[in-house]
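Section handout 9: paired folding examples.
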Amino acid sequence: MDNNFDYQRELKGVFAFGNEILPEHTMSNIYTIVPSIIGVVTFICLFEFFIGLENESSEASSPRGFEFGSLDRFFQKGHPIVRSHAQDCPEHWKSYADSFRAEIHINSKNFTNAKEIQFSQTTSPNYSTIAILNQHSAYNLCDVLLVKIQSRDWNNRPKTYGGDFFRTKIFHQEPYSAASEDVIIDFLNGTYLALFTLRWIGEIKVQVRLIHPVEVLPQMMLTLSGKVGQNITFAGEFISGNISEEVICRFAEMPGPLCNLSNPRTHGPWYCQRPNNSRLSCADWKYHKMYMGTFLKLEDHLTQLSKDLLTKSHMIELKNNYQIEVVDGESLGIPSTLPFCTMNGVPNGVHTAGHFYQDIWYPDNCIVASYNPESGMECLRNKNIVILGDSTTRQIYAFFRDKYKKYFTALPLAEGAWSKYGPTDIESAKYNASAQFRFHGLPRGGTGLVLRTDFIEFISDRLNSKRDGCNVIYIISVWAHFISSGQEFYLKRLVSIKRAIQDFLDRCPQGKVILKGANTKDHPAVWIAIVSSEWNILKHEMLLRSLFQNDTRVGFIDAWDVTKVQPYPDNVHPNTKIVKQFIDRIFTYLCKR
């Protein structure tokens, strides 16, 4: 499969604007029109709605097309479920979504040119509105909630094109319960529709955040293409005896004499300027570094419009006072028995796959067991875990090191090693268990980073080395340091990792590989939004899932779905309680049948 992998096909599917976040070549496999009565009736009832979209006045405050007076005719009330929480709701939202998509072409257009636009014409989180279209005095578990989002500009005028990037959720604060939308439909005319399945009883609020106005996406596309990453500068220090020299290094070639320090086996291109001192050779590359201010310089290349959009319209919540009540159904019902979660591959596309209920994350289609340190160590007995990737994967290692310190002993660091970057190891003689962390190969950044080059190890090289044997569990995550490098670079690196994983599992069928996906993050500075905006992170995540979706031998940690609706502030390193949700999933994979 990999030898004939079509890079262009993969890249094409993720370059579409808007909130339809599944690669276009997978859409026909994801959503199938259900030939049910409810679907037919839904389509009939919504015909007038779409006509209303076409004729919507640009100044209308309550567009006729969104007066859903007839929705009660097809909203199914009283599902046979009587309980406070429903993990196994029917997917009624799919029938509704198919019907809405059927008419999406009416009066639709997309944003294509930012050259002539003024900031006042861009999407405003202050004036954009939300509305619940199917309001009732109370809802039942598993009902579908429809939330309309109307984008408006800074002059309070309705937008006439789509492509804004929103993040939405429904939630109850204490104890915390939350779920993301099942889907957001972008009608490409400034109007969006979010569909939510109601999974717990009680009061529920709605939250909509504007992550990016569509007008900033041309800037985001520069990052997606890798052009921004080519301006990020690293340093390499070359040393021979008492002679040393620092030069500029990048993943892309530069003018002038260069040292080609690339790793062609893993798609690891790396170039440094050749040292001016003739007594230093390319073989004398000893340290990889990064300085403060390197990323900050990226802001110098922004247009004024992009600066305004990334400071005034970025990750801001839309105001609303909506609150609904969810009650029990009227008839008794027995919840279906879900199996424990198993390692059966990576989901096809990025979509809602679970929800929080009373501070615990529940997948929609399987059960995750809860572990404490005692039961966790029993699960780890006679196991060797090798954690490879970035600092978000290091959090899993740190959880074992800190929360299980009663059982594990930390081994001394190698001379010149950093605990942040590895290599770092813990082991338990009593349980014959061990865990180790190794950071992935270049590119690798971080303020004040100083890394010995002999500690640089690429993931595919590690898997192909065979030095971990066959009785090993690999936990792998690569995303945070690759966003600025662009999608094509990232895809080629993933292909090399996938080949190594396949070879390992062919060689060692008893071995295990668990992939951790990307999570949401904070953007405390403009340059961080340039380098790794949520929109760009999501586009890269789609590549990973598309590439690995057919390999059912790997497990997957859907960190995106969990952190998207978490009760804690966004952070590239999620709260420890979120990491605990990941740990429980890993243990369930390993020790539940």
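Moving on to protein 2 of 2.
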Amino acid sequence: MGKLVLFLVVATPLSGAVAQTFQRLGGCPNLGCVLPPDQSDFLPGQYFDLRLEVHAPVNGSETFNDGMPDENFSVTITKEGGTPKGIDEFFNVTEPELEKWDFKWYEDLFAQDANTPSVVNVASKIYRKIAIYEPGNYAVTLRYYGDQITTANWVVRPLSTQKRAKNVILFIGDGMTTNMITAARLLGHKSINGKYQSLLQMDQFPVLGHQMTHSIDSFITDSANSASALYTGHKSTVNAMGVYVDSSADLFDDPKVETIVELLKRTWDSAWGAVSTAAISDATPIALSGHSRSRYAYGSLIDQGLNSVTNYSWTSHGGPDVWFGGGAEQFNPGSGSYEGKDYYEAFANAGYEVSLNKTSLLELGNSSKALGIFCQSHFPVWLDRNVFTENLATFENDPLGSEDPALDLPGLKEMTLKAVDILHTRGGDKGFFLMSEGASIDKQMHALDYDRALGDLLEFDDTIRATIDHLKEIGELDSTLILVTADHGHGFDVFGGVDTKYLSEQKTDREKRRAVGTYELAGLSQYTVPADDVSYSTGPNFPVNWDPRYTLAQGFGANPDHRENYRVHKTPRKVVSSTPGFSKDDLFVDAEDSPDGFIVNGTLSVTESAGVHSLTDVPVFAMGPCQETFGGVYGNVDIFYKMADCLGLARPDNKSPVETENECATKR
């Protein structure tokens, strides 16, 4: 007991510290870990893996039991009001073999600076592909080291088994906040005496809610685990998707949870697809089918997208019916693709029509599965594709892997409308699920290139408008739940107006700042005022002048050092660079960025080259069947459960809809 008492004394004050910058393992409150952890929610019948770990730190402030983990740990599960049962009995599975490994972590910044990691030995078991069918409250109790206990309280939600929506279209404006929507409206829509003459399509949705975006290990999330929360109903760790992160070294053995498209395919055999202006292997699109602790395992995640999980028994999602985006590096054979394979060929062999440019996209039929990969990496943004088009020739992003530019590029609208047509045809009476992402709202906010971000937001809204109109045309609007939300936010806002001519002509930074007008000196938007010899032919709902004299004073709450002149950047922005004589990680204001502007001191580490995500809640717009359930404020995981309820994905009886219908017919 001496060691146990010592551990408790040391561990008690650590509970606060361990929950800060560095953590031994997210979701693990002490030396025993249950994954899924405490406070997890489940859909009745949703498959998941259960990982149990017992930790024995060898050194550091948590040192315990001479680094020997308890290999004789036990675990039970208890439904509220019932009696405890062993996991093997409750789930009717075979007891798995014991696994052992070790890992290292830093307790804090001082330990990292001194390069003194703590070593932890682990004993573990994992139960794979199990499910709880009966709604209710459950407690999983892990016992170890004699009288140590870790308890995870779970809730299996009582949700519908019947469809209310035939289809769901989930629009994700990556990183999009209410402040950005407000700024985009100011750019693209004319107002007279404070009254807008037109509105964004998002403004016209009947229901508005807000979602909280925290992850397990941080209140500031990233796009991988935030997308995973939307698609699975389970929170995860930064950079992870479709799994709860364990402490093993393997990127693909972590305990998985079933995603909405896997459930939809297994339950209703519906069609599904994803469209993005990012690489299709990027976090938001790939998390629909991906299961890994690392969003950066791009090639393997593409293979999962085509073939589902193959290293363990798991649900087959059947491959997407539509996959449109960038990221040709993972499809051309070579170092970027999984095992060096040609994934254009792999998809073609699986029956996909493959498109590599806008022309061939528009020529695709609607009856076959379709893969469209239109460039390497992420798409050039809307502003470069439509206004500063000369920039396209500077990209080396040909989808076949050459250093030529990809010039025949579709936009988000063209990809989304084509995806709807294909999914409508292939899904038929079984319906479809489509995720459409405006990816570079986020990516350009990171770069502090606000105009490019807001241009992509306006493209995103234009796509939503066109999709609604198209659903009306094909007779599917009333049967389709349409959601518009974000995965996280940024600390962006507009705080005034700027006389850019005056700013440019002043000599010192302090004089230049006088050009920023606030309150009554902020003035009015000039982006919707026609200017001589300026015409972009981009249609309504976009600015008629992207470079007026009087612009928006806009900025970030979390940014590196940079220079601002508040004018549109006619080439993609780079705010910092390394300087000769300093470490390459010690970044300074880039001399070529906004040379007539003034220095804005950063709020982040000097190693950060971009702005970062923020805490803010993000909006949720809803229309269609079940729209009334999306009002209010709720967690990101709740969006999954609201969609699942509307799609009738719960299976409390462990029976498919076909089996249930056959039973009803027999009784009749």
